[in-house]
Amino acid sequence: MSLDEIYKETILDHYAHPRNKGRLSNSTITVEGANPLCGDEISLYLLVEEGRIQDVRFEGRGCSISQASTSMMTEIIKGKDLSQVRALIDAFKGMMHGKEPDVDLGDLVALQGVRKFPVRIKCATLAWIALQQALDDFEEKGATATRVVEE
Ligand code: ZN
Q1: Partner of 141 at 20 to 30 A CA spacing, among 1, 46, 79, 132?
Q2: Beta carbons of 124 and 114 less than 8 angstroms apart
Q3: CATH fold label, 3-150
Q4: What spacing in Å lies between the alpha carbon of 37 and ligand 1's midpoint?
């Protein structure tokens, strides 16, 4: 199997079997993200306490790249403190724009193949940009609801 095929399998596995799917009734942050160009939509529910992502769930619909990226993101940020999450956001966004990640991105490296299709990069970054905006709002005003539309 080529690396491209392994990456493709990883993406399809997360799409078919999304991790952390559903809602959280006790979330402290909710955020919606939309990528109208492709029709991707996601909602994230985060329980942040003592500066740490204690729990996270998501709901969504759209292409395999957007949903797999969100699934992988929930997996890697769960249990991390907010500074680690910020570092992951930077590393992932950087990777999607050609930079070598300086932290371990786990399954997320499977998405680097998407760089070959510039119009799909927003599918991969949707959840990350939504999360970043939500954390900014949360840290600034303790806000709990954010909506982000990629343009
Ligand atoms: Zn998409």
Answers
A1: 79
A2: yes
A3: Sufe protein. Chain: A (3.90.1010)
A4: 8
